[in-house]
Amino acid sequence: MNFVYPQANLIAGVDEVGRGPLVGAVVTAAVILDPARPITGLMDSKKLTEKRREALYLEITEKALCWSLGRAEPEEIDRINILHATMLAMQRAVEGLAIQPDYVLIDGNRCPVLSMSAQAVVKGDSLVAEISAASILAKVTRDREMAELDKQFPEYGFAKHKGYPTALHLEKLSLLGATEHHRKSFAPVKRALAIG
């Protein structure tokens, strides 16, 4: 990882999962790793197999100095838009940390408003171990939620596509309409609800 870390003792990494899906919450995580308990194999969660992500999730939650999840629900996404909802969920993740970090590194190109210094890092989930760890926690959490939603609404295939607008999801949406978990402000859902 070729990233020059800022001079700070406690660094939290933050990432989100679920900006693109049509259903469910946007989930964020904040992680402060313990330098005394290194974790091998941290990388962007999307580049890992599901089995590897699950194993790393357990290791991160066990070894990190502290970690926290944040989220914004579909109603909030519809009310304030996905970008603002993502920033809100990131704030919630950082505020939920049991230890306050000195500095926060955020995946992407913008930072939420926080009470401590922060820096956005483009492709941070591939460059910064703390952000990689956060991306894994957020993805595993959201994928588990989609698996649960799949049990409630098996006909939509949420376990397969995780709520993203795949051909299958769009087809089911037009046939079956939207569930209460769908984001009503997103165009395909709007069309399915015929309110657009």
UniProtKB/TrEMBL annotation:
Residues of the RNase H type-2 domain: 9-196
Known catalytic reactions: Endonucleolytic cleavage to 5'-phosphomonoester
Sequence positions that bind a divalent metal cation: D15, E16, D107
Name by which UniProt lists this protein: Ribonuclease HII
InterPro entries linked: RNase_HII, RNase_HII/HIII, RNase_HII/HIII_dom, RNaseH-like_sf, RNaseH_sf
Lineage of origin: Bacteria, Pseudomonadati, Pseudomonadota, Gammaproteobacteria, Enterobacterales
Intracellular or extracellular location(s): Cytoplasm
GO cellular component labels: cytoplasm; ribonuclease H2 complex
Gene3D superfamilies (alphabetical): Ribonuclease H-like superfamily/Ribonuclease H
Species assigned in the record: Xenorhabdus stockiae
Domain of life where this protein originates: Bacteria
